[in-house]
Records
---
Amino acid sequence: MRTNGYGRLQVVAGPMFSGKSEELLRRVRRARLAGLEVVLVNHAWDERYGTGEVSSHTGLSLGSTSATDVPGLLAAVGDRAPDLLAVDEAQFFGPDVVPALEAVLRRGTTVVVAGLSVTFDGRPFEPLPTLMAIAEDVTRLTAVCGVCGADAVFHQRIRAGSGGDPLDGTAAHVGGTETYAARCRRHHEP
Ligand code: ADP
Ligand code: MG
C-alpha cells in the first residue's frame, strides 16, 4: 500500500459487551511489541475499574491516560506524533473529537478509536457513525444476545441507572452486566 504521510483512522464500533476494549487492547499490545510509541487514552467517565485504565469485561487491562474532554485528549498526545493513538469510549468525547483526531492524523499518527455505535435505546451514537464514515478501516463488532444467543447489535438497560438523556449522560452509559444486557434486533426493547 502506498503511504501519504498521514495516519490511518481505524474504528472499532459496536454495542456494549461486543469486545471493543478487548480489540483495542489487542492492537495496543501488538504495537508495543513492535516497539512503536503508543498513547492510550480513556474517557474519565469510565471509572468502572478505577481511573487510568482501559479494561475489558474479560479482565484484561492496560494503564492509560484519563481525559475529561477533547482538549484533555489532545493534551495527552501533546505536540508529539506517536505512532499510535488509541482511544476508548470515544462516544463520551462528543462531536468535537472528529476534527481533533483529524489533526492528529495529519501528523502521521495512526488513530484507533473504540466506542459505542448505539445508545441503550437503540439510536446511533455520535461521534461513532461519523468516525465510521471517514475511517480507512472499520471493525464492526456484535455481542451475543442475552435472550436467544443471536448476534446483538444493541444493548439495553436492565436496571435503572441515574437517568438522563441517553445521548449524553455518563451514568447512562457506564456499567456492566448488572446494569446492561446485549440484545439482538428481535429482543431489544428500547
Ligand atoms: P466492550 O468494550 O465492547 O464493552 P469488552 O471488550 O469489555 O467489550 O468485553 C467483551 C467480553 O465481554 C467478551 O469477550 C465476553 O467475555 C464478555 N461478555 C459478557 N457478556 C457478553 C455478551 N452478552 N456478549 C458477548 N460478550 C459478552
Ligand atoms: Mg469497553
---
Amino acid sequence: MAYNTLYLKKGKDESLKRFHPWVFSGALQQIPSDLEEGSIVRVLDNDGKFIAVGHWQIGSIAVRVLSFDDEEINFDFWKRRLKVADDVRRSIGVAGRADNTTYRMVHGEGDNLPGLVIDRYGSTVVMQAHSVGMHACREEIAKAIVDVMNGEVENVYYKSETTLPFKADLNQENGFLIGGSKDNVALENGLKFHVDWLKGQKTGFFVDQRDNRSLLEHYAKGRSVLNMFCYTGGFSFYAMRGGAKLVHSVDSSAKAIDLTNANVELNFPGDERHKAYAEDAFKYLEAMGDQYDLIILDPPAFAKHKDALRNALRGYTKLNAKAFEKIKPGGILFTFSCSQAVNKDQFRMAVFTAAAQSGRSVRILHQLHQPADHPINIYHPEGEYLKGLVLYVE
Ligand code: SAH
C-alpha cells in the first residue's frame, strides 16, 4: 500500500480509539506539503502504531476515517461496505419491496462511509459526495453500487455540484456516471412522486420523513390539514390517502408548489380536496383563520452552524407560537427541526416556550426522529439531526 502516512501528536488518539471517524487538523503532526486533497492516508499514533485509514482533506476535519483496519481502499472495499448498507435496508424493511422503491442507501458516517450519501429512487440512485476523497472514488463506487444491487439499480446519477468543498475548485457538473434513465417516478409506501434529481433540493426528495408521513396518515381522517413548508408535497398526499377533509400545501418556492401539484395529481387526479399556495410561512400563518385541525411545520434548517443557534431557537419558538395560536381545539401539530446544531432538548424547549406563550394545554403524543435508513453511528452522535414532536392541542 503506497498510501501517505500521517502521525498523530502524542495523546491525540483518544477519540479515534473510541472509533470517532474524524481526525482534526490540530491532532496531526507535520503534514507533507505535497499531499493531495482527497488522497487516502494511513494515520499512525506518535509511537508508529496503526490507528486508521481515511480520506485526507483540507480544513478542520483533516481525515475522514474509512476503516480502523489496516486495509486497502479498493473496489472490493466499497462493495463490502455497500453490501452491509444494503443488508441494513433489507433488515429495516425499506428495500426489496415492490411498493417502496425510495430510501436512503448510504448515510455517510452512519454507514461508515463519511462524506458519501446515496438515495435510491427505483432503478436510479442519486449519489452525493461531500468530500474530495469520495469525489475521487466516484467511478469505482458507482460500479460497486450496480454490482451489489444485482440488477435492481441500473443508473447512477452524480449530484455533487453544491456539496463538494467550494475551495477545492473541482467544477464538477451533475450527470449520470452509469446509465441515463429519464423515468423519474418513484414509490414511497405505495404513493407515487416525481423526483427532480436534476434541479431538486438534496437528492431530489426528502426521504427522511417517510416514517413520519406514515404516522401523519393515521391522524388525517376527517381533518383539515395545513402542510407548511411542503416542498414536494410528501405530507400532503399521505394526508389525502388517510382521508383528510381538505389539504392546503404552502411553500415560498413556486417551483415547490408546482412539484406538489404534480405529485398530488399523480396520486389523486382531479381531487378537489387539495390546494397549494406559494407564500411565505409567516405571512400565511399570520393571515389564516382557525380552520385547521392538523398542522405540519417542517421548515428548512434554521441553524446550519452552532453560532446561529440562539436565533434558530427563537425562530422555532416564533413559528410554533403561530400554530398554537391558530390551531383548532383538539388539533394535532406535527412540528420538526432538521438543524443538526439544535439538539432535541433545545428544540423541545423552543416549542415549550411557544406553547406557554399561547396559554393552551398541550400534550406530547410522539417524539419523532430520523428513520432507520438514516442510521446514527454510535461513535458519531453528531449524525443525529432530525427531531419532531406530535402534539395534541386542547
Ligand atoms: N416537508 C418537506 C420538506 C421541507 S424542506 C417534505 O416532506 O419533503 C423546506 C421547504 O421550506 C423548502 O421547500 C423551502 O422552499 C421552504 N421554505 C423556506 N423558507 C420558507 C418560508 N419563509 N416560507 C415558506 N416556505 C419556506
